Every structure is written in C-alpha cells, then in structure tokens.
Amino acid sequence: MVKYPSGSSAAFRKSSDKPKKRKKYVHKDDINFSDRGMTLEQMINESNKYYLTKEIAVVHKKPTPIQIVKVDYPKRSRAVIKEAYFRQESTTDYNGVYKGYYLDFEAKETKNKTNFPLKNFHEHQIIHLEQCLKQQGICFTIIGFTALNRYFVTPASAIIKAWWEKDKSSVTIEEVEEWSIEINCGFQPTLPYLEAVDQFIADRKLNNGKQKL
Amino acid sequence: MVKYPSGSSAAFRKSSDKPKKRKKYVHKDDINFSDRGMTLEQMINESNKYYLTKEIAVVHKKPTPIQIVKVDYPKRSRAVIKEAYFRQESTTDYNGVYKGYYLDFEAKETKNKTNFPLKNFHEHQIIHLEQCLKQQGICFTIIGFTALNRYFVTPASAIIKAWWEKDKSSVTIEEVEEWSIEINCGFQPTLPYLEAVDQFIADRKLNNGKQKL
C-alpha cells in the first residue's frame, strides 16, 4: 500500500524534519549548500532551471502521479480536487534531453555517513532504469550523503547490479566512491551533475558506442 | 486560470461526451479503432504499453501536475488528499527513449474534418518543443482527426512555425497531410507512431545530423 510517493515527501515534511540550520559561522569560500536548508531534490530542481534557462539541457522532475476521485467545480473559481490518492509511480523522477542524449535518473539522499541503504530505490525504479538502458539512454542515480555534504553521480548499471544481489542491503561509501563521479556543489548550477554526464558520454564514445553505463 | 489540465480531461469526461458507438456493422477487416470508444490518448497509451513490453521503446505519459494543499493520514489506511488543485504543466504530455533517441511529443484530437485549430496547443507546449529541438530531441505532434479516423505524426517544427504565425488560427487538413506522416491504426500497436519516428531518424541521418525536424 502506497502511503506517500517516493522522493516526493518533501512537500509534506514536518518542520522538525528540516535539515538543521548551521551552527557556526562558515566562511564565504566554504559555503555549504546543504547547510542552507536545501534538499537534494531542491538542488537538482535549481540546477535544472539553470540548465534550461541557459539552453544547456531540458530536464524536468515528473509530477507525482495522483488518482483523482472527486473534483468540485465551484462557480467563478478554479476546480478543487476533493478526494485523491497517491499512485505508485512506474518510472524514475527525472528525465530529459541533453545534446541529443536521453537522460534518466533517480536522486536519493541519506543521513548515513558510511553506507547507502539500497531500499531507498524501489523495484519499479530499478526496472525502469534497466528498460531505458536497453534503449541506450544515459541512466544514473544521484546519491547524496547529506551529513558529509558529498554527492555522487553513479551509473545505473552499478546500482542495478548491487540492488539485485541477494543479502546486500546497502552499499558502502567506498563502493559508491569507486563506481561514481563525485560532484562538488557550486553556485550556478547548485549541483553541476552534467559534468558527470559529459564523462559518461566521452566514455561511451571511447567504447565505440558499446553500452557501458 | 486553469480549470483542468490540457489533454487529461478524459478522466472527468461526462458519459455524453464519449465517442458515439458505431451505428452499423463493420466488417472485421475494416475495424475502426476510434469507433471502439478509444480516445487518442488511450490509443497512444496502449501503443506505449506494447512498445514497452516488446522492449522497443520506453515512452510514458507524464502525470498531471497537482498542487497538494491538504492530506489526511487515516489510521490503518492510505493517505487521502483532501484539497488539491490542477497546476499549469510546463512540458508536453509524452517523452521517452527509442534507440538512443530522445522522443518528445504532444497528442491532440479534433472532431473537425477540414481544419485543426491551433489553440489546441498551448504556449508552454510549443516552447517546450522548441527547447527540446535545440537539444536535438525528436519532437513531434500526433494529430487525430477522429471523425475521419485519420492520424498524423507531424514534425514539431512545422506546428511551431504555424503556431507563431499571426492571424493563423488553424491549419488545414491539406497542410497537415503535406507536413506529416500518416499512421494507420492497427491492432498491436494500436497506433504504430514509431514508424513515423523511424522515418524522421532516417531523414536526419541523410542530412548528416543537421536538424530537420
């Protein structure tokens, strides 16, 4: 039973769940963006807005799928949905186009400092990434270790392989480091993840179009 | 003011709006799929399901964006959205990946037999198609003349050009014929629109990767 959609709980988060405000003065050069109260989702959305405005890429977060049961149409005002339910998603949260390449990815964050629990990814997301890989999409995950302010762009194939492994409930940060390209938070864009995508594209060209991701 | 989202009114359609049932016996070989009560959206969704199952392409309809205001979490049952509003979309309804190509399209149907009113496309859809074209996506529209049971896959560039023309409120069916690839309804998939996409890809290769769509 779906209580709320994955990756979209930010909107309903209680204030007590918000990332803590920074406790001490941080020098300008060391600005820590995750300390500024931004979730990984917000960082990606800001980056996508930047990429769109600069005509670098077109990537959007997909809306949360909702099953609408009852709608009121009050006179002289907009329609109000009075009863609806969260539906199971069948894809990842983000997709789009960059230099002719199809991009597809899922973003997850953890407060854990040493491991990333694989249950953060749901089966439908793993299957969707597999399907897109077969169509030669550039598929990856963005994993944020928020307590460490470290962000990794990991090829989907590595996560898919780990996810299907029996008795493997998490990946260590060392594994993530080995498989991924680490992205440093910036100002514009906040999370320049296309730098990693550029490297994936270069790798693919080196391999003569053979699927590596 | 958004009363309901474009292209998604099917769910709230009154029964009186449903396509009329066929009046006379139609021979098996002449099965008319639009007469079977399928909207263009349903035909595309069925085709996408077929393409996905056969591992031919991964294309999904994007969920309708909803602004959620109030959610109840009853004990021992799933969350219920009690107040929400339709939000303006910022993209087209469909995108996905096929043979490494990014696909992006919008589908519209009309009961008109001679013209297709351009107001069926909204400005945000036209702008989104322009943005995706700049990223070398394969962008198009599927236009259904339901009264004629004729379906056209039209390169986005043609529709964009017509849409921005002053004093042009519609395109004639002759113009649509000239610009488009006509698709015949089938059984599996119901609307084999990738046949047109194959031709767009071939055209692009002929033009040495130059943007033609």
Automatic annotation (TrEMBL), chains A, B:
Q: Where is this site: Transition state stabilizer?
A: K108
Cellular localisation = Cytoplasm
* Cofactors (names): Mg(2+)
**One Gene Ontology term, aspect cellular component:** cytoplasm
Q: Quote the InterPro entries the UniProt record gives.
A: Resolv_RecU, Restrct_endonuc-II-like, tRNA_endonuc-like_dom_sf
Q: State one molecular function term (GO).
A: crossover junction DNA endonuclease activity
Q: Can you tell me which residues bind Mg(2+)?
A: T91, D93, E106, Q125
What keywords appear on the UniProt entry? Cytoplasm, DNA damage, DNA recombination, DNA repair, Endonuclease, Hydrolase, Magnesium, Metal-binding, Nuclease
Co-factor remark: Binds 1 Mg(2+) ion per subunit.
Q: What is its EC number?
A: 3.1.21.10
Keyword Amino-acid biosynthesis (UniProt) = no
Which catalytic reaction applies to this protein?
Endonucleolytic cleavage at a junction such as a reciprocal single-stranded crossover between two homologous DNA duplexes (Holliday junction)
Q: Mention any Pfam family matching this sequence.
A: RecU
Residue ranges for the region (Disordered) are: 1-25
Per the record, the GO terms for biological process are: chromosome segregation; DNA recombination; DNA repair
Say which domain of life the source belongs to.
Bacteria
Cited function: Endonuclease that resolves Holliday junction intermediates in genetic recombination. Cleaves mobile four-strand junctions by introducing symmetrical nicks in paired strands. Promotes annealing of linear ssDNA with homologous dsDNA. Required for DNA repair, homologous recombination and chromosome segregation.
As for family, the record states: Belongs to the RecU family.
The protein in question is named Holliday junction resolvase RecU
Q: What is the native source organism of this protein?
A: Lactobacillus apis
Cite the source lineage: Bacteria, Bacillati, Bacillota, Bacilli, Lactobacillales
